Amino acid sequence: HNAVVTAILASGAYVNSGLRIAELADATHELLRSFLPAEASVQNPVDMIASANEKDYRRALETVLDDDGVDLALVINVTPLLSDPRDILTEVAEVARDGGLDKPVLAVMMATEEFYEEVSRQERLPPVYGFPESAARAMALLCRYAAWRRRPVDEAPPVFEVDDDTVREILDGYEGKTGDGSAKDDDGGVYLSPDDAFRVLGAYDIPCVGGRVAGDREEALELARELGFPVVAKAVSSTLVHKSDVGAVRVELGDEEELAAALDDMEAAVRAAGHDNEGFLLQEMAQGGHEVIFGISTDPRFGPLLMFGLGGKYVEVFKDVRFGVTPLHRQEAEDMVRGIRGVKLLEGVRGEPPADVDILVEVLLRLAQLAQRHSRIRELDINPFLAAADRRQAKALDVRIQVGRPVDRPAE
Ligand code: ADP
Ligand code: MG
What we know:
Helix content: 25-40%
Strand content: 15-25%
Bound molecules: adenosine-5'-diphosphate, magnesium ion
Number of strands: 14
Radius of gyration: 30 Å
């Protein structure tokens, strides 16, 4: 038996699961001692030795589960020659049922194929595994699930004072419009203009870089003087999704001459890529920080899914993102932000000051509220959002919003 228990102890599933071998109370030791043979070990893992029958299994399991220090039990039977595993499992199942769901019981029975076929058809049995490793993995997952159930959720998700009327008005403006009919959005999703997309964020007090769309070159030059050099210029086209892929984003343009040349280049590049040029987005040049991504994706059946991760060009490279669903609690938003593998980057490497994580958590919570209240928003991507040490420097540099039909969902 010890070989089996050792296998469980040695398996990686046990080590990384947060499981601990319970230390049994003295009273439990005594009780076990009272009915088990002298050669049995009453220390955990309890070893009843090969002579144990189904009644011994029942009593031992009852005794162990009664111990306050025990949260779950694993019954292992490896001697099918001496006792019928069916009888043992029947007793174990009864004890497990008496305990309800408070203390899960799992079993490892080293038995024949027919036995497993038989138990798989039977209801109300504890889960039975053929190998200790599988049982250990299941126990680890049970513990993770238990921890998730225990997470603090008494505190309701925060509710922010926002300008929902403005959002509604903007989205109304796209009512009845249909998208470009690309294969993916077969029910006519349509993208908001950059100005409208940034206005939606503004209505939810999500910080954005200064700027707006200019209709032509003259207006772009004028706007740049207003914003102050250096500026960033991006070509606008409703069919163009990844602007920098076609050379439609130019940063750090130092003066009018550079800007004018960049506008020419971009216009030609966009046309060469097969898109219509519909103007230029002029923005202030943001400095420093780390690029992160926020996303909303709304499934007609499941509702909004929120995403956070490392952004900019790293999204595709590292795919380091975390997901959450609404209603999103503060703790969950925090776990999303701090749960990415690259969180060390945000915390600051080599003496860099750490990014303000609170603002990232808040943006995520505000987006959750936006997604919940405006189900017409089918997809939203802020990429990049600049995470910075100084919260005044934290802002969205690029946002894309796709709207579709509103989704019927029960109020949350
Ligand atoms: P797209 O995602 O369509 O390629 P973006 O607007 O995200 O275009 O710009 C691409 C990259 O350019 C960003 O990841 C960022 O590094 C940089 N960038 C964009 N806007 C600004 C800005 N206002 N200030 C500084 N850098 C910017
Ligand atoms: Mg982008």
